[in-house]
UniProtKB/TrEMBL annotation:
Residues 34-337 form the Glycosyl hydrolase-like domain. Residues 1-25 form the signal peptide. It comes from Potamilus streckersoni. This is Glycosyl hydrolase-like 10 domain-containing protein. InterPro entries: Divisome_Glycosyl_Hydrolase (IPR052177), GH (IPR017853), GHL10 (IPR003790). Keywords: Signal.
Length: 499
């Protein structure tokens, strides 16, 4: 805080006849940052909406229930699936409305609303980041027919590159028109919506169907006929690499603060690290996820570590340690966890708790949080998982980690101004710089600050429950905080400690 701000605050407080002290917060411990995400899947109506035949009001109510539950449990991000299969759960001029939303692809909600806009606005009011989750190549899930697809669906627009594979309809990742379509879709969302991130999961080339190779032979022959020398496998990986790198650069050219994250299959290749057995995503999905992390083509990677800690063949901790070693560009690693295994595989809740404890123990090595699959288990409190998280894991709110490579050239975060104390009520001026995204409120316990609440940017007052030392800080869209303004409240009155 500069000298002018000191003088301004002192003058205001003297006029208000409030005792003023000068102090410092430098020796205090602020709570660690942690990404606490949860996937909200829309494909097959897994998490939301629970029926494609619900009304607009029912869908809004369900989405608010999800966001309220996320806030109650101190999650700070949802990963919201907006493009499950070449469709859109938002108002798009590029792709059709999703059948998972209205029952008929291409039909808008009626009465009209935009689910993504609604999710972003309501999520931000609750201090929750909204990361938009796209599938780059899937054209239809559990259905191989093009019947019922809207005329502007990519499988209808580019039928030469739409393939039946297993039980799904899939687009050819090598086709330039397919890559351009995915790129255009994502950049359109980045431009038009106030989102916090773009997210892919583990679907690149599809999971193999026994006895059937992916039917892109003609595309590969076109490549080799044009002078290409890569093997089929390397060519497929290059196709995916090209799109990943292009999307990362495209996002940053539009909005530097929008994060790009991928949640690949948890095993890159068997025997990495030594002793790990299982599916080879490098050679089967053609996903060189290690390369993307090492090259810095993502802001975070959240490998799907859907195994227990103990089995040596797929050990959660062994794989997490290996992934952390690959972050040569110091990008964040979040552990992808399957909360649903507490219900589906009867895992004890303590297994998930131990995994979060293990990931926190590695916070100094850029393991800075986790993402849970999926929201319905927390919404429904399956096997008591919501109660367990609230009581044992996420007792207090937390800010998402700051990504230093995205914040270097941003303006400074303004301090709370005109802060006054009336009894147990704190009041401050609304930020007019449009830099503030949230206000963070803390209470001091010994030398440690516990976060109490995250408030919307438009908040200008907050009541505290008891006497003690409190701090308020401004937070910007990149999760940077201002210097704290600290107040000490007693029954005799309040005082400001300029930190």
């Amino acid at each position: 805080m500069n000298a002018n701000m000191y003088c301004k605050l002192l003058s205001i407080l003297l006029l208000a006849a409030v005792q003023t002290q000068i102090g410092t917060c430098e020796d205090s411990v602020w709570p660690p940052r942690e990404f606490r995400g949860v996937w909200v899947a829309t494909v097959a109506n897994i998490d939301w909406p629970t029926s494609r035949h619900h009304t607009t009001d029912q869908q809004k109510t369900q989405l608010l229930t999800i966001l309220d539950k996320a806030k109650e449990l101190h999650f700070n991000a949802i990963v919201f699936q907006v493009r499950p299969a070449g469709d859109a759960l938002y108002n798009s001029s590029v792709e059709p409305w999703s059948e998972y939303l209205t029952g008929t692809q291409g039909r808008a909600p009626s009465p009209y609303y935009d689910p993504l806009q609604f999710a972003v606005e309501e999520g931000h009011k609750r201090g929750i980041e909204v990361h938009t989750w796209f599938n780059p190549y899937r054209a239809r899930s559990a259905n191989t027919s093009t019947s019922g697809l809207a005329s502007n669906h990519m499988a209808k627009r580019f039928p030469d590159y739409a393939y039946i594979y297993g039980h799904d309809l899939w687009m050819d990742p090598s086709a330039k028109v397919v890559q351009d379509q995915t790129y255009t879709v994502i950049m359109d969302v980045v431009k038009r919506y106030d989102i916090d991130g773009v997210h892919f999961d583990d679907y690149f080339y599809p999971y193999p169907v026994s006895g059937h190779d992916f039917p892109d032979t003609h595309s590969y022959h076109e490549y080799t006929a044009g002078g290409g020398h890569l093997s089929l496998a390397d060519w497929r990986r290059e196709n995916v690499d090209t799109l990943i790198h292009r999307i990362y650069n495209g996002i940053k050219a539009i909005k530097m603060n929008v994060k790009f994250g991928i949640s690949p299959f948890g095993i890159w290749r068997p025997d990495n690290p030594p002793g790990i057995h299982g599916f080879d995503s490098y050679s089967s999905l053609y996903a060189d996820s290690k390369k993307w992390l090492q090259e810095g083509w993502v802001d975070y990677l959240a490998p799907q570590l859907y195994w227990k800690i103990d089995p040596p063949q797929q050990s959660f901790t062994a794989l997490l340690d290996w992934w952390l070693q690959q972050s040569k560009q110091h990008r964040h690693v979040y552990a992808g966890m399957f909360a649903g295994n507490t219900l589906l595989k009867h895992w004890p809740l303590t297994e998930i708790g131990s995994q979060i404890t293990e990931s926190r123990a590695r916070s100094g090595r850029l393991c800075l949080g986790d993402i849970q699959f999926s929201m319905k288990y927390f919404r429904d409190n399956s096997v008591g998982i919501s109660d367990y998280f609230k009581q044992n894991l996420y007792q207090n709110p937390a800010l998402c980690p700051e990504m230093s490579w995205l914040t270097a050239d941003l303006p400074s975060v303004p301090n709370p101004s005109n802060l006054t104390i009336t009894g147990h009520r704190l009041t401050w001026n609304k930020d007019n710089s449009r830099v503030i995204y949230l206000w963070s409120i803390y209470k001091k316990r010994a030398d440690v600050w516990d976060m109490l609440v995250l408030l919307d940017k438009d908040a200008v007052t907050h009541n505290v429950a008891s006497n003690g030392e409190y701090a308020i800080r401004g937070v910007d869209r990149s999760n940077r905080e201002s210097d704290p303004a600290v107040v000490h409240i007693t029954d005799a009155g309040g005082s400001l400690i300029i930190g």
